[in-house]
Every structure is written in structure tokens, then in C-alpha cells.
Amino acid sequence: xxxxxxxxxxxxxxxxxxxxxxxxxxxxxxxxxxxxxxxxxxxxxxxxxxxxxxxxxxxxxxxxxxxxxxxxxxxxxxxxxxxxxxxxxxxxxxxxxxxxxxxxxxxxxxxxxxxxxxxxxxxxxxxxxxxxxxxxxxxxxxxxxxxxxxxxxxxxxxxxxxxxxxxxxxxxxxxxxxxxxxxxxxxxxxxxxxxxxxxxxxxxxxxxxxxxxxxxxxxxxxxxxxxxxxxxxxxxxxxxxxxxxxxxxxxxxxxxxxxxxxxxxxxxxxxxxxxxxxxxxxxxxxxxxxxxxx
Amino acid sequence: xxxxxxxxxxxxxxxxxxxxxxxxxxxxxxxxxxxxxxxxxxxxxxxxxxxxxxxxxxxxxxxxxxxxxxxxxxxxxxxxxxxxxxxxxxxxxxxxxxxxxxxxxxxxxxxxxxxxxxxxxxxxxxxxxxxxxxxxxxxxxxxxxxxxxxxxxxxxxxxxxxxxxxxxxxxxxxxxxxxxxxxxxxxxxxxxxxxxxxxxxxxxxxxxxxxxxxxxxxxxxxxxxxxxxxxxxxxxxxxxxxxxxxxxxxxxxxxxxxxxxxxxxxxxxxxxxxxxxxxxxxxxxxxxxxxxxx
Amino acid sequence: xxxxxxxxxxxxxxxxxxxxxxxxxxxxxxxxxxxxxxxxxxxxxxxxxxxxxxxxxxxxxxxxxxxxxxxxxxxxxxxxxxxxxxxxxxxxxxxxxxxxxxxxxxxxxxxxxxxxxxxxxxxxxxxxxxxxxxxxxxxxxxxxxxxxxxxxxxxxxxxxxxxxxxxxxxxxxxxxxxxxxxxxxxxxxxxxxxxxxxxxxxxxxxxxxxxxxxxxxxxxxxxxxxxxxxxxxxxxxxxxxxxxxxxxxxxxxxxxxxxxxxxxxxxxxxxxxxxxxxxxxxxxxxxxxxxxxx
Amino acid sequence: xxxxxxxxxxxxxxxxxxxxxxxxxxxxxxxxxxxxxxxxxxxxxxxxxxxxxxxxxxxxxxxxxxxxxxxxxxxxxxxxxxxxxxxxxxxxxxxxxxxxxxxxxxxxxxxxxxxxxxxxxxxxxxxxxxxxxxxxxxxxxxxxxxxxxxxxxxxxxxxxxxxxxxxxxxxxxxxxxxxxxxxxxxxxxxxxxxxxxxxxxxxxxxxxxxxxxxxxxxxxxxxxxxxxxxxxxxxxxxxxxxxxxxxxxxxxxxxxxxxxxxxxxxxxxxxxxxxxxxxxxxxxxxxxxxxxxx
Lengths: 294, 294, 294, 294
Known about the structure:
Four copies of one chain form a homotetramer.
Chain A: E1 3-4, E2 9-10, E3 15-16, E4 23-25, E5 28-29, H1 35-38, E6 49-50, E7 63-65, E8 70-72, H2 77-80, H3 84-89, H4 91-104, E9 113-117, H5 121-132, E10 137-141, H6 145-153, E11 158-160, H7 167-174, E12 182-185, H8 190-203, E13 210-213, E14 221-223, H9 225-230, E15 234-237, H10 246-255, E16 287-289
Parallel strand pairs in A: 9-10, 9-12, 10-11, 12-13, 13-15
Antiparallel strand pairs in A: 1-16, 2-3, 4-8, 5-6, 7-16
Helix pairs in contact in A: 4-5, 4-10, 7-8
């Protein structure tokens, strides 16, 4: 942070931001007064702006945002040192996963099993979060070997290559027939994976499974109501990363040892970022923050 | 109740059942020791027997069941008088609806709107329960005029004939564009009504809707993940009526004024019931109960 | 509403407020960006202002507040007519009760029993809300006969004069020994009523009771841990009325028939209000609203 | 297991128990049909028997119990080898802690802080469970150095000697002023520690704290209602270890690495156990199990 207005409050201290405070920011610029915001659901703001979408983004040396979207990274300094802003850049995608599996999915009770379908940044973050949440078995299904290996580094107990292995049999085998309490659909091809999720739920002995849909997809999902009736299961859709205390909890998790920087495959310089995304956004902002790219 | 074994405990008193205690019984004979039962989910018992399905049923003068499935109707006596057993016969189907909208659907907060699709016994019971739970607007969609009229008697604020009216526009109109917190799929034709439910959720300004699937159907449901993501919505499957304190709460609701006997369209004598269902069941039972047919 | 700024959005329409829209406003002026606000808990805002406490209040012909604290009363017009603003003036105290029993207390399942201790405005509103939420038995304990009679008008099934009756025996008697799922401490003398609440919980057969503390009191409460262990009970403190969708739900409840105007004992003219509270507040406000006194 | 009746079902397989299956058993012999049991709350069974209390206990070569109280330890075999039954003997006390902090306390969201007061077996198990549940900071307060060291081995981030350090300042310091989401009262001297818990809650910036009372104590607790109102906090009482899927989840947690055998300070032979507790219990039992002492 290089500049802060007089009303730019740091939630770490409930005092004005000090110059030099390292921060990360939410990407969703929620209004705070529409009906969903007033009820505590800023991810569904009726007047949403998004950094890098409809307002200028963070591929820039400086970006100006309202202080209410900024969260201090101070507690990451000791553990991450000169990787501080690399860690900070991962708070947002990790918060998307956290919102999906913890806030919307309801989390798990320690000792439950979970299955993550898709090993992109959100799926990988979900692996780390759920292993830290006490999952007995975290299983990732993902075609890319690189991503499967990352999942193992982040705590996955088992990984499945769905192009070569039978997903259903593998999950039932790894869980001694119990199945999983939580499934995360993070592939973007639900029409392909959904019937397999349902088959696990149907054949597994565990009940009460929750399927969280976090990846966006146009395809219709062929839902079998009876599976969710007989197995006492549920489905939730997840969107966003704001609110619900998610950002500060993700930062605290990272501070206490959940190292998401493992998923960084490459860092680029500002010069490598196309010129057209370098402009600063201009209005309704009180704080300038220095960003590394995500 | 005409006979009770020495270990047949009346949960109303935690003492042995007395002869003459009016009771109703659950139809699901859960084992009480399998994994789901031990976790508190008897509707998903792994060793389930069902009265009138795989064991002899209640179209009989006497039926013998374990006391743990019987619930006293004593508190209904004052209000229902000689209609006591008619009221009692409705506890089970009302409990199916209660399990769907309250236990599985999570209920509502007073002031929320709800939409019931399908006006059979379960849908009608849901109308009554949710009106008693403080729904601001209870809306029923049902082609049969008779059933729509019953819904109004049970407390529905608005009824829709989906064969003549535009369901989506009607719901949005009746709710001032807010939509509903809870939808109950009780039609058995989800492939038809589902796209309309999704359109209401998508266009309505209220978020956090829950769709409860209670009717059984073979058809695949064409689920649009994005609707449930953007509108923060969820889907749950519901099965059964046992456990979770449902039977006694339904009885207390009836005692305090929720009169379900309005949905009884006809009563028949025992002679009119086919001979083959009159046999008594014979094993694992400690209590004999007098039943009216449901 | 007599004047509205260009960014004063009406949450009923998500468009700018129109002149003439009848509204009521929250009394808690939450900041929207502190840590509790950002997590969805505006009742615990770290930068709270309060209308009529530290900022000028609403005993005035006009009051200027930010639009985000205002809620449309449009849906009350049909039912309340020229009593519209009387009804509107009761949204705030009713929301305090709603926050206590529904948001903080977790509400009830239809068919549960509840006990309200204290028949002031909050206790009386709780009676009405919980009866509308499907309580089988709503019991009020209150020394004043006037207030007990109001409680009966608002839906109480039983009232107790604790100065003449045995509270514990009465509750156990009215509930057939089951006790209550929810107790609301709204007396302000917890040191007196608490031992009686605990005795009911201890002796009743129902478990899982929740005691909500809503009245402020300096006295220490003599808590017996064992009662809450053996009877699986809990205690929550409640403060405020903002957030959580409470105001709009209370308005919808009033629109659908919960008539709180019954508790109005007297209306006064503006001239009767002391001169010193008539000044308008002056800053950080975008909307002028016409208020009746509460 | 050395003998199993024809109806003794192993919940691991939903088939009859095989001779040789290693098991542990619940100590609470719940009836399964009383009102609390039928609602899913066996820890509050109205007809409870307890192994080693009112029925003969497990300080014996063989003990006969109904199969519904037995849980397979098969999944612990690989990790624990010849320490299998030592691990198994810890499932019960760990389940008491699990019931307290996860089932009754509602668990935490990963990244929350927790404070455990008292480092006996329950407090130590809570340390391990909550660290596995993703607590950012697990803080234990306990006078005994031996127990504080065990807590560190089980995952505590900070330990406090309340006889030498200022508990309140230490907790606020370790949590950067945020305080804790969950406090476990496991000391048995609540009259001493309660005011300190309240002071942390009052001064900390985090809201929504839950205090779980698990230790039994006769002393009245001096509860300050305002603390729980202003800080949006709650109190729950906890009793027992049965139901809610607790035993199997604890076993799965142990299988996935939560090694509770670290708290075993001494093992004794059967001969060392007083003669009078060796008798076998005799009735209502279907299964014989081999036990190590707890």
C-alpha cells in the first residue's frame, strides 16, 4: 500500500491504513447496500463491479480500490519472506475454493472423505483446504499428471487419472465403500463427470453427500432425483470469494502452514503483460496497492 | 392400542403403554443399529422394512408393531373427538411433507415465500405446514381445481393452474419479483416443471432458494448449474418420515390447530379393503394397535 | 420519503427511491466495511452510530439517513391504510425480537413449544413472531395484566403471572412435561428468572433447549453448567436488529397478517415531544424520510 | 471379537461380525427407542446404562455388549500394528472431545483460533481434533508442564501456564487481538476460568465465539449476559460420545494420522486391576469383545 485516504480503515487494526502495509484485495467490488449485500451475501451483489472485468484490473504497477476490499497480509510476512506477494496473490483463488467447500458446501467434520474433480487452481486449493479441515481421505480426479502431482504435494491422499482409471471403482476402493461427504465439481464438464458422481453416491454406504458446483459450464447436468433422495444428498452452486470472513481465514490458514505458493508454475514481469491492461482504474477508490500478478 | 408387551414404552410418558392409548405408527420399520440409524438417519436404514410393502400392512383390524414406531395421539383427543383416528391416519403423510420442507429443506424464516408444485397429499400437507411456519406467501401450482381449492382451505395464499396460467410470471407477480425461498417438487414430472423453477430462481431478486425433491420420478432432470451458482441456490432430495422428532411435532401441530382432516375425500370400511391385505404381520412386534385406514 | 439523492437505491426495486415511497429505517447506522460488517454482522459494527443516541434522532418532522438503512413499507399499504406509519414504526422493535428468536435463537421447528419471559415490546413481538413460526404452545410470563392480555391478543396460548403462579409448574403443565425448545429472557432481571428457566429445562423431558438473552442487565447470571450438559441446551446473547434479511422479512410478515399495531397504547403529536430532540442530523445522509414516532 | 450372535451386524460391512474383527465399544448403552434416542440424540437416552458404572465394565478379559455399540478398528491396523488396541482404547475419550467441539460446539472454519482450558484426556484430544480441523492457532491453558508438553506434541501452537502467566493477555497476544472462535471449558473449575474467558471474548475483536462446557462441576458459573450479547457469543453444554457418526469419524481421523496414543502414560496388566471389577456383565448382550483397559 503506497497511499491511503483518511477513511481507509485497515481491518487488522480498525485504524487507518499505514503506508507500507502489505495487502491483497478482493476482485469483486460489492456495493454494500443492495438487498443481497445488506443480508450478508456480497458475492451476489446487484451492483457488482469486477477488477479486471468491467473496471480496470491489477496488471498494473498501482491499482486504486476502496479500502473495504483490502486485507492485510502482515501475518504472512514471517513465513513467506520475499515470497509474501506471491502468497498474497493466491488468497483470491484460494478464497474461491474456500467459499465453495467451506461456506457453500458447509465444510466437513474431521474424519470425512472428500472427492475433488478437476485439478485447476480452484480444485488444487480445495485439496489443500479440505486436507487442513481434517478430511480422512482427499481424492483428486484429474487427467494432467502435473496437476495430480501438485495435488499430492498439497495433501491429496489419492489421485485418479480418469482417462485411464475407473473413477467410480477407485473412489469406492479408496474409501472402503463409504464414498465421500463432499464432492467438488471443478472440471467445467459436468455432463461427463456427473453420472460418475451419482454412481459413487448411489453405491457408497455413506449418506448425506453434498455436491458443490464451482466450475462454470453451459451444458445441462443430467440430474437423477432419486439418487439424492435415497442417499440423502444435496447440491449447491457456488460463486465468488467475498464476505463470510473468507479472506481473513484463508490468510490465517496460509500463515499457519497451508502453503499455496506450490501451485505457482511461472512468474512474469510487468513488461510481459500486455500494454492495454496497464491503465489504472479511476473512480470510487481510496487506496493504492502494489500487486504482483496472479 | 389393545395389547402391549412389558417393554413397550410410550414415549409420551416414558412408561409402559396403557391399553386404550390411541396411537399412530411410522410406516418405516428402521433397525436402529445400522450405520445410518446409529447416526440418527432412520429414513435411510440399511435394513428397512415397510408396513404394507415387504411386511403385512395396516389394512387390518389389528396390526402388531414394535413400540418404538408408535406415537401417542392423546393430545389430539380434545380437538378431534370422534375424528381422532382420521387425524391420526394423516400424521404419516404429513410427516413425509414435514421431513421434506422442514428437516431436509431446512424450513424457512417467517416472512419468506414458498412455492409448492403438485397438490397431492404431500404437496397439500406442505402448504399447511409452511403456512404455519410463517410463510408470507404460500403458492401452489396444481392442475386439479379440487386440489387447488383444498390448498386454499389449508392456507395457500395463491394457487396457479399451470395448464392455463404462466407459472413463472404468476410466481414473480405474486411475490413482487422476489421469488421464493423454498420450492417443493411434488409433481413427479420434474422434467416438465424444473425449467420453470429455474426460470423463477434466475429472474427473481431473492437469492438462497432451496429446491426440495420429494416426488419420485424416473426422468432425468435438466439441471443448469449456473442458475444455482449465480442465485446461491441448492437442491436436496427427501425420503421418508421417521426420526428427527418429526412425528411428535406433526402431532403437536395438529393439536394446536393445523387440521389436516380437510384433505380426506372418502372413508371406507374394512370390508371394502381387499381380503388379501388383512393378515396380521407376525414377528418382531410388541404392540397391537387399532388402525383406521390411511 | 420527501427527497432522495441520485445514489439512494430502493431495495424494493433496485432503482432510485421515488418521492413518496413510504419507508422505515434501521436505528443502527452500521459502517459496512469494518470486520464484523464485512462478515455479515452489522449489529456488531465497530464504527456504529445510533439514531437518537449519538446522532440526532427521529423525533423530528424530517430525518436524513443513508438509503441503505431504509426499507420500503409499500407492501403494508393495503392492509394498514392510514395506520401505515404506525405499523412502520413497529418494524424496528419487532426486528429486535426477530433477531433474538429467529436469527440468534435459530428459530423453531413447527410444533415446538416456546416460553417468553417478559411482556415488554420485545417480548410481545416475540410472542407474535413465534406463534407465526408454528409454535405449538407460546407461553408468556409477565406480572402486568395489561401486557398478558396483549400477549393473548398477539397469539399466546398461555400466560403466567409469576407473582401469583408457580412458573415452573405452569410451564411443565402447559407442555405436558415436555418443556420448551426456546426461552427468551426479556425481563432484565435474569438473576431472578434464570434459576426457574434452569429448573424447567432440568425437569422437562424435551432436550435441546436454547435460552436467548435479549434484555440488558448488569446482574451476573448464576449458570449451572450441568443443566446445559445433561439436557443438551445452549445459551445465546442477542443484540440489534440489522442485517440477515430481518427488516424485509418482518415487513412481509406484517403484510401477511401479523398485526403488531395492537401493542400501541398511545400516540403523541410532534409538539408533545421535547424541543431538544427535534433537530435534524446533518451529515453523511442521502435520504429524507417522514417518521412517526415509535 | 471372539464371539458374535447371528444378528450382530458389523457396521463396517453391514454383515455379521466375523470372529477376530478388532473393535472398540461405546461406553453409553443407549436404548434406541426412547424419545431422545428416536430423535437421534443417544447421549441423552432416557434409559441409559453405562459400562463400568451401573453395568459391569471392561476391566475384564471378555465383555459382552450389544453389537450396536461396537465399531470396527480394522482401518487402524496398518498404522498402529501391535498398538492397535491401545489406539482403540482412546476412541472413546477422543469421541467425548469430538462430541464437545465438533458436534456440540459446531466445529470451526479452517483458519479460526481456539482455546482449550484444561489439559486432561478430553482437553488434549480436543487439541488434536481442532488442529486437524484447521485451527490457525490452538492454545492450551494448563498448569501441569507434562500435560502442556503433551499438548504441543498433539499440535498445540501455544501453551499457557495459568499459574504463572496472564491467560487473558496471552490469548490476545497469540491471536493478534482477535481472540478465539471456540473455547473449551475442560478444567472442572469454571468459577475460576469463566471470568477470564469472558474477558477475552469482551476484549477480542473477533465475534461469534462459542464456549463449550464439557467438564462437570458443581460450582455456579457467574455468567455476564452482556458479554454474550455484545460479542454475539454462545454457550453450549456437552455430554457423551455416542451418535452423530462420532465414533467412526474419530477412528478414521486416527487412521489418517491423528495419533492419540501419545497421551498414554502407562499400561497395566489385567492382574493389576482389582479383582472386583473382573466379572462379566450378563444380560442383553450379543457380542463378546476383547478389551485393553482404557
